[in-house]
């Protein structure tokens, strides 16, 4: 029973890569870790098709760069000590709560500058926060929803607050991370943050019966593995938002296989914390830093073990984007198609 994996291919035609004003990076490819699971793939297509969010998209150049810079500027042992002590214990985390108290956009931006000037925020992170603010603001305003200014201020102050908290006291993701719902509900935070960016009137989820079938299979104890050609930071939220009305428990129960970037970049981490994740280091970047190769290998082995344990327990819904290929619009029609070198090529 438990080893009959129902594999589905999922066609997501989001406005792809940077589906929101959020973070353009894909959950990195995890192909090697996943081959075993994906082998049984019987391609079936679900169309889950939000129309492109009405927004211009953030192009935070080189998130990886950002993280590296941050790491080097962070040589003050404080962060390392915090990391060592604070991993995973949300309750124990100290928090200065300055951003959530901001009453205006100007105040929010001046707080970023202040924290940077006083050395509590690495300059590149501060810059990323400002950029995030402006991109999010533009996207929400373009959506035409009422009270855009309040929505931007309240969601951004929470987002910046969580990002700052992570700089002060970095969260360390274990190989298997359960969505953090208490005391702060990171899941709902991500949902609310992304919600204004989805054009619900022009979005639809196709093949609803397939989701009914998924629900049944999960109830019977089967595991379900969803294989997607590409994944961005925003996808979990967008998928969950679109399924919220009809299949909310499915939305909340997905476990995403995540690459290292989404669990190391301070701008991404608060969004990742609200999701169930199996964290893997991508093969592509395995050798980027020679001293880290062993650690990454060991960590991937642990992640694989965790994944095997999960699957053995049954009733798991896993989302995997094995190749990380980017979707691109067709130059003639402007329609989005799965990227080359993506899953289609790997498993067809
Ligand atoms: C964030 O945006 C949502 C709309 O998605 C809104 O309902 C909410 O009040 C905003 N603020 C917070 C803190 O969630
Ligand atoms: C699915 O989510 C619901 C709540 O959203 C929870 O009660 C249930 O235990 C979850 N099931 C699994 C298999 O994680």
From TrEMBL:
Pathway: Lipid metabolism; Phospholipid metabolism; CDP-diacylglycerol biosynthesis; CDP-diacylglycerol from sn-glycerol 3-phosphate: step 1/3
EC number(s) given by UniProt: 2.3.1.15
GO molecular function: glycerol-3-phosphate O-acyltransferase activity
The entry's keywords: Acyltransferase, Chloroplast, Lipid biosynthesis, Lipid metabolism, Phospholipid biosynthesis, Phospholipid metabolism, Plastid, Signal, Transferase, Transit peptide
GO-annotated cellular components: chloroplast stroma
Domain of life: Eukaryota
Domain Phospholipid/glycerol acyltransferase stretches: 224-347
Family annotation (SMART domains): PlsC (SM00563)
Protein known as: Glycerol-3-phosphate acyltransferase, chloroplastic
Taxonomic source organism: Eucalyptus globulus
């Amino acid at each position: 029973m438990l080893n009959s994996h129902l594999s589905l291919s999922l066609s997501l035609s989001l406005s792809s890569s940077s589906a929101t004003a959020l973070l353009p990076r894909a959950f990195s490819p995890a192909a090697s870790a996943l081959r075993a699971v994906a082998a049984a793939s019987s391609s079936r297509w679900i169309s889950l098709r939000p129309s492109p969010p009405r927004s211009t998209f953030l192009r935070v150049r080189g998130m990886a760069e950002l993280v590296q810079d941050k790491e080097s500027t962070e040589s003050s042992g404080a962060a390392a000590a915090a990391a060592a002590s604070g991993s995973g214990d949300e309750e124990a985390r100290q928090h200065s709560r300055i951003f959530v108290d901001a009453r205006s956009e100007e105040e929010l931006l001046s707080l970023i500058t202040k924290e940077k000037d006083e050395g509590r925020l690495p300059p590149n992170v501060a810059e990323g926060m400002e950029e995030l603010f402006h991109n999010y603001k533009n996207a929400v305003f373009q959506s035409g929803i009422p009270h855009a200014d309040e929505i931007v201020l309240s969601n951004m102050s929470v987002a910046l607050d969580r990002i700052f908290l992570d700089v002060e006291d970095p969260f360390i993701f274990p190989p298997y991370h359960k969505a953090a719902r208490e005391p702060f509900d990171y899941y709902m935070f991500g949902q609310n943050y992304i919600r204004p960016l989805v054009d619900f009137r022009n979005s639809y989820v196709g093949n609803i019966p397939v989701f009914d079938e998924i629900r049944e299979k999960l109830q019977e104890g089967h595991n379900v593995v969803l294989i997607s050609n590409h994944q961005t930071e925003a996808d979990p939220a967008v998928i969950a938002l679109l399924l919220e009305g009809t299949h909310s428990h499915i939305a909340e129960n997905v476990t995403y296989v995540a690459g290292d970037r989404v669990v190391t970049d301070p701008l991404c981490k608060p969004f990742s914390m609200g999701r169930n994740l199996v964290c893997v280091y991508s093969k592509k970047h395995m050798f980027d830093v020679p001293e880290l190769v062993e650690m990454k290998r060991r960590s991937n082995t642990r992640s694989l073990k965790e994944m095997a344990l999960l699957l053995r327990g049954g009733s798991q819904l896993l989302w995997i984007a094995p190749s990380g290929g980017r979707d691109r619009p067709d130059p003639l029609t402007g329609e989005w198609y799965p990227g080359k070198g993506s899953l289609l090529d790997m498993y067809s």
